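Posting this for the archive.
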Amino acid sequence: MSSQMQSSQSRSLSDWLSYLEQIHPVNIDMGLDRVGAVARRMGLTELPFKVVTVAGTNGKGSSCAMAASILMAAGYKVGVYSSPHLLRFTERVRLDGAELPDEEHCAAFAAVEAARAEIALTFFEFATLAGLWLFCRAAPDVLLLEVGLGGRLDATNVVESDVAMITSIALDHCDWLGDTREAVAVEKAGVYRKGKPAISGEPNPPATIASEAHRLGACLRQVGVDFHGDEQGDHWDYHGLHHWQGLPKPALPLMNAVTVLAALESLGLPLPEAAIRQGLADARLAGRMQRLQQDPLVIVDVAHNPHSAAYLASQLRQIPCSGKRRAVVGMLKDKDMAGSLAELTGLIDEWYLASLHGPRAAASAQLAAALHEQGPGAQFASVTEAYGAALAASSPDDMVIVFGSFYTVAEVLATKA
């Protein structure tokens, strides 16, 4: 262990997280060579249980939540690795829906620290290896592995998965993934594996998804071609390798539920229809169209790019509101602020623009500039101030929508904790 480190027995989880932030390399090569080398030392590349890798611009968290809910209803022991977290780092590693104690995370970090020796790792790489180590000890039946950024070069891609799925393809993280949907699709499709099911839930797929799947020798199944869902009023039907009719609509995006069923039926595990129904009905995920209170209704959603903002707008249009809709927004400056805010044109009566804090944060003035075509917005120094002002201005028949970033939603959730 580094001389900077105390013994793993005395170091708390917050100490470990501070340490990981301090050793984070400023300039580091993209690629899997470093993290892959440490993963091989730790025996983490080929895991002794089923693995489903989940990539995509939006919808990864919702897909993992629905898949986990269905698998648990079927009696399987399920691990979920996700990022980022909202309130606690321990949210990133869940076993049957529950977080693990801090001391188990500390033991995992110590194991990674010992194995990496001279190899530099980013915060996410270190955290991913620690998560995989914890899952190896917990031995779930299925691990749902959410990709952090892209796919091809993401730390999660050191694992050989049994099924890989892509939820959606849109422009985000353009500096890393490319500025066309075709380029982004190549990065996402990097999670596909030779001879293994490769699921694509993108309804308007760039040609590069199919070409990459073919190049890799993966067994591609695409929505609208090999599987699809049909809405039937309050229910929906799934058509793929199986036909399931009259399924309950989930609280999470239906488009992702369709892709989840395609992935799960490709996994080769028995999946009772009753478990599918129960799992879809029960699935929830913090920060996704989450209702915090009534009178006024408060909804938080982590939508942070035009694609996810468009979905947020479609959901808000279905919620009756006889009063005013107020939006509390905080975003990161490397996001498409103008494009995201434009998706809510005509829906929002008053804007409450909040500055986030940190090197990637956008100031409220930057949001105001991005919003200018839709009218003025009140500017605040923090999300907490903006949220408090929106609530104070609201009557019981009004609605407050909080969105723009995980950080924005987390700050509001923290006020409720």
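The two ends are 36 Å apart (CA to CA). The CA atoms of residues 8 and 110 lie 6 Å apart.
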